[in-house]
Write a structure and sequence with these properties.
Layout (H helix, E strand, L loop, with lengths): L4 H14 L13 E6 L4 E5 L12 H11 L5 E7 L8 H9 L5 E5 L5 E6 H4 L11
Parallel strand pairs: 3-4
Antiparallel strand pairs: 1-2, 1-3, 4-5
The structure holds tetrahydrodeoxyuridine.
Length: 134
């Protein structure tokens, strides 16, 4: 996939800015995500916590679900921003894998600095995918 440094930074900045809307009264750990579809649209997401803790939703999944709910299921790249460059959780890796193992994942810190770039298949080797159900 062709992605320029400028495009990387744009996605990282959007994810970082989105963090201001993260709803994190319990962890105080705001996460922002931005995802670019193959059609060129961009969706952002933030983590949304809940007093009943397990009902919290991660930023990556919010961004993916926003896109899917608008008919977009083909993704090129997703950026994830946390204060300390945290990595996507296992549940989010699984949800990413549903829509393609080649999607590029950019992991950045709160300064907007890219810390790691890898594919979903690198993040989740031996993934269980829709192909297993065919
Ligand atoms: N979180 C995400 O939003 N994405 C991840 O991939 C890891 C964890 C959120 C969930 C919770 O609101 C906070 O970070 C601390 O776990």
């Amino acid at each position: 996939m062709n992605i320029t440094n400028e495009e990387r930074q744009t996605l990282i900045n959007l994810a970082n800015e989105a963090r201001q809307h993260a709803y994190v009264p319990y962890s105080n750990y705001p996460v922002g995500a931005s995802i670019r579809t193959k059609s060129g649209r961009i969706y952002t997401g933030v983590n949304i916590e809940n007093a009943a803790y397990p009902h919290t939703m991660c930023a990556e999944r919010v961004a993916i679900f926003k896109a899917v709910s608008e008919g977009e299921t083909e993704f090129e790249v997703i950026a994830v921003v946390t204060n300390n460059g945290g990595s996507p959780c296992g549940g989010c890796r699984q949800v990413m894998s549903e829509f393609g193992l080649d999607t590029v994942v950019l992991i950045a810190d709160g300064e907007g600095k890219l810390q790691k770039e890898l594919t979903v298949s690198e993040l989740l080797p031996e993934a269980f995918t829709p192909a297993h159900l065919l």
